[in-house]
TrEMBL record:
Keyword Hydrolase attributed: yes
Annotated protein name in UniProt: POK25 protein
Gene3D superfamilies attached to this UniProt entry: Ribonuclease H-like superfamily/Ribonuclease H (3.30.420.10)
Cross-referenced InterPro entries: Integrase_cat-core, RNaseH-like_sf, RNaseH_sf
Provenance organism: Rissa tridactyla
Domain Integrase catalytic: start-end pairs: 1-105
An example Gene Ontology molecular-function term: endonuclease activity
Gene Ontology BP, a term: DNA integration
Length: 105
């Protein structure tokens, strides 16, 4: 948990059937302030994660760290490069263990 705003965000994708044809929600939460940003998407590709974070940054500012699960969108090379350009540390949870992502899960 972050001790200051924009210290740590947690992000995940979740399926929400009523939003079809864009059923995927990308959700980020600032673990200190509790601020939540959600965006809707057709897929869970790296491009969608980066679009989500770009919008979230425009509202909340740039986080120091983003914690995610090990989904393909978050482990993709393009996602890692995007985070490096923004000077954001990208951390992944332990596979099959959601406790490291307890707030967003």
């Amino acid at each position: 948990r972050g001790l200051k705003p924009n210290q740590i965000w947690q992000t995940d994708f979740t399926w929400y059937e009523p939003f079809k044809p864009r059923p995927w929600l990308a959700v980020s939460i600032d673990t200190c302030s509790g601020a939540i940003i959600a965006t809707i998407h057709r897929t869970t590709k790296s491009r969608e994660a980066r679009r989500h974070w770009t919008l979230a940054i425009s509202v909340l500012g740039v986080p120091k760290q983003i914690k995610t699960d090990n989904g393909a969108a978050f482990t993709a090379k393009t996602t890692q490069e995007w985070c490096e350009r923004w000077e954001i540390q990208l951390k992944h949870g332990i596979p099959y263990n959601s406790t490291g992502q307890a707030i967003i899960e």
